[in-house]
Amino acid sequence: MSKRKGTRNEHRSIALLEDSGYHCTRSAGSLAAWDIVAIGSTDTVLVQCKTNRLPSTVEMEAMKLFLVPENCRKLVHRWDDRKREPLVRERDPVF
Fold first, then answer.
1. For the chain, which domains are there?
2. DSSP element (H, E) containing 39
3. Which sign does the torsion angle of CA 82, 85, 30, 32 carry?
4. What is the pTM of this model?
5. Which of 27, 31, 37, 77 has the most CB atoms lying inside 10 A of its own CB?
6. Contact yes or no for 82/74 (Cβ under 8 A)
7. What are the pLDDT digits (tens) for 8-20?
8. C-alpha to C-alpha distance for 50 and 7, rounded to whole angstroms
9. What is the per-residue pLDDT across 19-70, written as a single tens digit (0 to 9) for each?
């Protein structure tokens, strides 16, 4: 997968979140556990974007151990080639 494809999919996720009323920040190139931080009026959403695959076991463990407040959701957006919408996986706060 090219970096360009991953960046494009992160921007697609941001567009979906912004359409739902969130203000988004992309953590480009940071290699952080989360690609997008989205802040809404009642909650915060952390998103890890992947293209054609789910996060690795190591990535999933990092997301699980990432402490968040109760009103924060952890999501994975998996963008498959030629799909218009991501597969969204949402976990409880302990992921």
1. 3-91 (3.40.1350.10)
2. strand 36-39
3. negative
4. 0.88
5. 77
6. no
7. 999 999 999 999 9
8. 10
9. 999 999 998 766 778 999 999 999 999 999 999 999 999 988 889 999 999 9
